[in-house]
Specification:
The chain is α/β, with parallel strands linked by helices. The protein is 40% helix and 23% strand.
Length: 342
């Protein structure tokens, strides 16, 4: 089965697309594409949480249609697709209130792409009392089995670690969502290579404020939402220069990340946009006793899209794709809603 995984992260850097061929226990990456969001979509998605119910409903449908159109363009260039597996774009994530929302309506996507679609991977788990996140651990264990742990430096930083034959996973801290938001103060989409962060100064009181947040002391299962980051984390940088804010954020977040990494993790696969941030990686290498392995660029950039292709493949086969040890529900289950083209 040739499955196209679609991933849009909280950092709003764009849409990642990965076409993966699955056959029995083997998989092969066939093609990838990254599409930066046009300004109108960047504006709409970044303010979606402030829109009315009617506006958000319309955005859900129009974003789904747009995703479907991008799938058709991808298919014309890279060939046949059997199934689309879409993460959607997260607007709300409050598992403590049994609430999560990823827009990009599955039926609108399926009709626009004229392909079967799996999406909405988180809702069922949250309604069952779970965190609805992280979802990548099943893919980490099955697709990249040669590592002890898997660290993804995306909008949020999350980790998967082995627990015997099972896995534990959780969101460690904010990451690119904060770095990119601070960079936008200077009219830049992100801090290239961590250059601004490297040039800044460490503000100990600011780092201590960040490190004292209760989330970093809690035990898993746990997950982070955009709302918490915007309401709790971003205000601490008010009045601080961009360079100093970035420098201190890198130091503080890397510190809380490393403190949560279990001692039994010896070889850690690192992926996500943060793996390209040279300053962040230097600081992590300094602080982390484990061996951090940054793989090839395609794996770094498209690992989450690859994993979501796999989660959709498992859902289509009605096999479990969510691990109860990770999200905190009572049993493993097969998450995602399947939509057929009309």
């Amino acid at each position: 089965m040739r499955v196209l995984g679609l991933m849009s992260g909280t950092s709003l850097d764009g849409l990642d697309m990965a076409l993966v061929k699955f056959s029995e226990s083997k998989w092969r990456l066939l093609a990838t594409h990254h599409l930066s969001y046009p300004q109108e979509w960047l504006s709409s998605l970044s303010t979606a949480h402030q829109q009315s119910g009617l506006e958000l409903t319309a955005l859900d449908l129009s974003y789904g249609r747009w995703l479907g159109e991008q799938v058709r363009v991808f298919s014309e260039q890279y060939g046949h697709i059997d199934l689309v597996s879409s993460h959607g774009h997260t607007i709300f994530h409050q598992p403590e209130h049994h609430l999560t929302l990823q827009i990009g309506h599955g039926q609108a996507l399926a009709i626009a792409a004229q392909l079967p679609v799996v999406n909405d991977f988180r809702t069922a788990d949250v309604l069952m009392g779970g965190q609805g996140a992280p979802l990548v651990p099943r893919g980490d264990l099955d697709l990249f089995p040669e590592y002890d742990a898997w660290l993804n430096l995306g909008g949020m930083a999350n980790i998967t670690t082995r627990k015997g034959a099972r896995a534990l996973a959780w969101d460690l801290s904010p990451c690119n969502m904060v770095f990119n938001a601070l960079s936008r103060r200077e009219g830049l989409p992100y801090d290239k290579d961590g250059q601004m962060a490297r040039a800044g100064k460490y503000i100990a009181s600011l780092a201590q404020t960040i490190e004292r947040f209760d989330y970093f002391q809690r035990t898993p299962p746990k997950s982070l939402g955009r709302e918490w980051v915007e309401e709790q984390i971003m205000p601490v940088f008010d009045g601080v220069s961009t360079e100093d804010a970035l420098h201190t954020a890198v130091e503080a977040f890397s510190g809380v990340m490393v403190k949560q990494i279990p001692n039994h993790a010896h070889a850690i696969l690192v992926s996500g946009g943060g793996a390209h941030n040279r300053y962040l990686m230097e600081v992590l290498h300094e602080k982390c006793p484990a061996r951090l392995v940054v793989p090839d660029k395609l794996t770094v950039d498209f690992k989450e899209a690859i994993v979501f292709a796999y989660l959709g493949y498992l859902r289509f086969a009605n096999k479990n794709n969510v691990l109860s040890d990770v999200t905190g529900v009572t049993h493993d289950h097969s998450a995602g809603v399947l939509y057929a083209p009309r």
